[in-house]
Prior knowledge:
Largest sheet: 2 strands, antiparallel
Structural class: mainly alpha
Mean pLDDT: 90
Helix content: 55-70%
Amino acid sequence: MLYWLIDLSTSFPAFNVFRYITFRTGGAMVTGALFVFMFGPWIIDNLRLRQGKGQPIRTDGPQSHLVSKKGTPTMGGLMILSGLTVGTVLWANPLNPYVWIVLAVTLGFGFVGFYDDYMKVTKQTHAGISGRTRLLIEFTIAGAACFALVWLGRAPLSSSLVIPFFKEVMLNLGWAFVAFGAFVVVGAGNAVNLTDGLDGLAIVPVMIAAASFGLISYLAGNAVFAEYLQINYVAGTGELAVLCGALLGAGLGFLWFNAPPASIFMGDTGSLALGGMLGSIAVAVKHEIVLAVIGGLFVLEAVSVIVQVASFKLTGKRVFKMAPIHHHFEQKGWTEPQIVIRFWIIAVMLALAGLSTLKLR
Length: 361
């Protein structure tokens, strides 16, 4: 919305700053943070009033959670999505289709997560939407978005899988890339969802990944920087940095209330939405494999669940004391702050490793 102030730059030169993605990214970050800080307490009070007992706590999980987390409201993702949306609408270029595609995936996944949280809270059970129904809706949203991204982009790049560390190696999947891209988006959404199990555990790695992909988006959407780094130039994707900035700001605001002991949980409302957002940005900027590196912590959490389930079904034995893996370390005696901070450190290291692929080509 503020992007239109560029039209006044001929009369008021100061408005020329709205041309710059970096300036608008900073503006979106500040806007997202201020929105959550201002309206966060009101949202928390209303959710606590409406939810009563709060998010159901797993009885088969760490016993300390039954005491420390009981009664804490969920659906805190509404805070993040509100700040993210306001920051994006105010500061992003409204004519950029990538902005609306990624925002549609984010809000679409957020709606799925919201309904899942609603079912759990109202029925006071861990069984929300059935797994098959949820995945079907997620794949429908992600598939439509990836179809739009392939149609919008430049062939054959838009339908190709780019291999990091190589300058010109691409696997052209044709329209099959839509299915692959949808898998990336859905996988990212559910991986972040599995990570969201301790206070502050998911939001900080999400912000780290968002900062990384904000930089990647800016570089991939700039012809000069893309040529210098020898990465694929995808016109228009630089604007996605504004969304990443809005997420960073909203995430910082949410962390203020989610820091231990949490006043509110993100819930599926936030975790599914933010994971879907990261996945769709990775597909848009052609860095799907790099997402697996930068978001390696989310991959580890998802793999730990897959391994645990497969091992138990095939052998009757469990590999981990409990899955996802952060609960395994809880059962081993690590305190919640130890796990959260150490996982944050891992997320930073993985982000640096992922960003190094921009130059190692």
